[in-house]
Amino acid sequence: MELKLPNYFKYTVVLLGIILLVWLLQAFQSFLVPLCFSMLFALLLLPLCERMERLKIPRSLSIVLAITIVFLVVGLLIWFLSHQLMSFSEELSNITDKLMVFFDNAQQFLFQKFGIKPTNKNELVTKNLSTIRDTGTRFLGSTISLTTGALSTVTIIPIYIFCMLYYRDHFRRFMFQCIAREKRDAFMSTIDNIQKVVESYISGLMIVIVIVAFLNTMGLLFMGVPYAFFFGTFASILTIIPYIGILIGALLPALYTLVNTGSIGNAVIVIGIFTFVQFLEGNFITPNITGSKVSINPFAAILALILGGEIWGATGMILSIPLIAVLKVLFDSYEPLKPIGFLLGDVSSANNGPGIFEKFFEKFRKKPDINP
């Protein structure tokens, strides 16, 4: 006789399982974060490695070349942003003085038009000085901790990537042996589908960031905004937060323009440029680059970012979107979990065809015909 468990017992077990999972993710963060980054980079580099191997380049040398290319690109990006940030920080004192002048003018305008009594600047500074100091101390501590952790993982991530790519056939055979014979074809098809979708999605997202950075920078250069490359690149990176990320990135150049020129109209134009780029990104660029195989709706993406930040901090926010994309592929492949995959998907792009990057990867994976 089959024992039927009550629903409240099942829900309690599921809740306890989620709590245990979150605890394990936090407890093993130092191990899981580099592993997740390595898996994502390995998926990105796999087509390039396979292409070089078809050109009779040894597998080990192909992997080393691919890893070197990625780290050179990432290193140049970090150097560029750091250089721009250092140049921008040198003007903070001038920006502060201009901000105080703008603050005084705004208070005088409010007093003359609406009778609002101006606030004493010294009182305002004294009141918020301790808060600023505490916030700065916490930010500095978290930055030093994140930098130290990043330096320690930089050495282990390339090793993980090399091993994953070098022993990929061995891992595939291992998974093949763990699955029952009648389920092997379906399981390996799911694995291949995950690989293809994640490749096209993550690589396409990187291309979208580059295109948005170019458009943002061109718009700011047209407006004559200093540090246009820094502001444009910073806002483009925030496109991982759907719909609101690029608008958050627009606040910094808009505020800088307002303080530097004293013109509210110029600041509004800057926000308008970023809004227009956001419109292009959401309706034309992303659908045509990444397609709709793994289209995450904005609400699910924002929740994933918040949960990732709560569990793993800044690194969790970076990994949240790729990981939820992987989860959606898994949910779509497993019949009982398909409703959850549907819930995570974006209904607005359900009828879109494959994107440019999806078609590119399909051609890139095709092996040459040996028997003409």
Textual characterization of the structure:
81% of the residues lie in helices and 0% in strands. With 372 residues, the protein is mainly α. Among the domains are: 32-82 and 150-178; 195-367, no CATH class. Residues 366-372 have low confidence and may be disordered.
Q: What count of helical segments does DSSP give? A: 14
Average pLDDT number: 76
CA(first)-CA(last) distance: 62 Å
The low-confidence parts are 366-372
Structural class: mainly alpha
Based on CA inertia axes, which overall geometry fits? globular
Number of strands: 0
Described by strand count, sense and barrel closure, the largest sheet is: none
Q: Round the Cα radius of gyration to an integer and report it.
A: 25 Å
The fraction of residues assigned to DSSP E strands is under 5%
Q: What is the H-and-E element order?
A: HHHHHHHHHHHHHH
- Residue share in helices? over 70%
Q: How would the blueprint of this fold be written?
A:
Elements: H1 7-27, H2 29-54, H3 59-89, H4 92-114, H5 121-166, H6 168-178, H7 184-223, H8 228-237, H9 245-261, H10 264-289, H11 298-312, H12 314-333, H13 338-344, H14 356-365
Task: Please summarize what this structure is.
The protein is mostly helical and 372 residues long. 81% of the residues lie in helices and 0% in strands.
Features:
single chain, about 375 residues, mainly alpha, 14 helices, about 0% strand, disordered C terminus
